[in-house]
Amino acid sequence: MIANLRLTAEHNAEQDWLKTNLAKFASLLQGQRDLSSVARLLLSELTPLVGAQLGAIYRVETEEGIPYLKVLAAYADDDGRLYCERIPLGGGLIAQCAVDKQRLLITAMPAYVAPVRFSMFKAVPQNVIVLPILFENQVKAVIELASVSAFTKLQTTFLEQLTAGVGIVFNSVEAAMRTEGLLKRLQDSEDRQNLALAAGKMGSWDWDLARGRCVWDEGQKQIFGVDPASFDVVFPNVRKLVDRGDWKMLCQLLKRARQDGEACQVEFRVRRPDGSLRWCLGRAAAVKDAGGRISRIRGVTMDITERKEAEDRQSLLAREVDHRTKNVLAVVHAIVSLTRAEDIKQFSAAVEGRVQALARAHSLLSESRWCGAKIADLIQGELGCYRTPNLERIKISGKSLSLHPSAVQALALAVHELASNAAKHGALSVPSGSVEVTWESRDDQLELRWIERGGPRSEPKAQFGFGMRVIKASVETQLSGTVEFDWGYNGLQCAICVPCRPKMELFDNFWDSIQDSGIRHSDTRELGPRRRIALVKDESVIGRMRNQSLENSASTW
Questions:
Q1: Cα(37)–Cα(44) distance, rounded to whole angstroms?
Q2: Separation of alpha carbons 154 and 151, rounded Å
Q3: Which residue ranges form the domains of the chain, and what is each CATH number?
């Protein structure tokens, strides 16, 4: 009877020990979120509890569809020299345990096995136990323990019951790790998407047809220029932002996407609350539910305002280049047609000088990308060929001013004609003569003065050739300015006054102003009310050529 009582007490004590330690480990492992931490904690508490001196936990992993065991944690591993980092399934007793899913207990160890190192001696393990950690009959890991003494039945029972609970913990931690990994990848994907949308000035939206609810992301609200916190995405509010001319088209495309499920793309305009206009490119596609019904429409919006502005600039530049090319050719044609000379040599020199003046003006405009040209550069370019070592012969002075592109060609021709006249008939035709050119800006007007000194006196009538007429027509008509000639005893003085920003439009009074500039022919005839021609041209030289052509042809009408 005493023996039975003793056995019962021992059994109860063992059961208490089992329950207490199982509960301890259950509490210890609860809330863990990393398998490596679970493995290290498990070995550090379990190995000394069951009287073991060495321990390792191997996790089952897969690479290219082939499973293998990889060391997850070790106890007293002697710098890792006692364990293989990677073991293929079936390769040794540890891997065989994972294949068979059964406990292995080795009790008779040979003398040549690696000893367990203590501080004062070495000892050969007597028992090695290998246990699979299972969850729903699937191997999650394998635990290996070695002891210099034999494992008791209580210890082996405890290990078997503990591994069953550890399998649940491993599965929970793995599930949590997979969830965290998915969430991290999802967050990374969203971050990359947001970064791409922000970099590309894009926004996205999602219209739930069942709920009738539309959601905009931050990029979409930024494109539309609304307050992200307070803006309510409902159709009346959106309609206020979309340009009135594009709203009907957008509604038709969304209706088609809702009915047919076709993807659509459209460009439309957005008028922000601050009044600014933005061009947008919208793409939308329908999303079907499990029953094949269209349940949502999702899309992206891209701000293409900069692209549209660039296209407009490119188109404007192409038209401008086309216009300027035709204009230059027409001006050259007019110069050739209207130039008069006594012989071919003089004719060639006159035409060449005027064409070179045009070329220099266009070079200045090209260097500034047609933004204008500095007046000093223009004048120096026209007078450069007349400079001599005598620095007093040509003087140029004035503040740094930039000419509007539309004024560069006209002023270049005017200065060229003044210089050519001075070289032929004025101050530059004699060694003692000099020319001074000054300019200043006053009351939004550019005042340019050409002063000749020391040259022969010239008669005004003798000087009113083609060049002088070009000066008056270019300044007064093309630039809406004024020009005055003073034929003094010492030489010509010319005052040119033009607006700092000349008008860009064509001038309706061009023909009349040409006639008023002193080039009216005495035989001009009235052709009758049904045979009048209104000639409009923004280049005075071309206008003069067309005028002369019409006058020469008038007798045949």
A1: 11
A2: 8
A3: 2-179 (3.30.450.40), 202-303 (3.30.450.20), 342-556 (3.30.565.10)
CA distances from 532 to 194, 439, 519, 528, 550 (A): 66, 41, 19, 7, 11
The whole-angstrom separation of Cα 242 and Cα 269 is: 6
Residue linked to tokens 């065989």: 96
Locate 396 and state its tokens.
């140029």
Pairing of β 213-216 and β 202-208: antiparallel
In sequence order, what are the residues at sequence separation of 6 or more whose Cβ sits closer than 8 angstroms to the Cβ of residue 20?
none
Evaluate whether 514 touches 532 at the Cβ level (below 8 Å).
no
CB-CB neighbours of 120 under 10 Å: 5
H-helix or E-strand containing 306?
helix 305-338
Tokens coding 420: 């050519």
418 φ/ψ angles, rounded to the nearest 5 degrees: -65, -45
Burial of 135 (0-12, 13-18, 19+ CB in 10 A): middle
3-state secondary structure of 141: strand
Q: Which residues pair with 75 in a beta bridge?
A: 55
In whole angstroms, what is the distance from residue 157 CA to residue 165 CA?
13
The amino acid at 554: A
Please, what are the averages of pLDDT over each run of 10 residues along the chain (557 residues)?
76 85 85 85 90 89 86 76 75 82 83 63 80 89 89 89 87 82 72 58 87 89 91 91 91 86 88 93 88 88 90 83 74 72 80 84 82 89 85 88 85 90 89 92 89 81 67 83 87 89 36 33 35 49 51 45
Residue from 413, 408, 406 nearest 334 by CA: 413
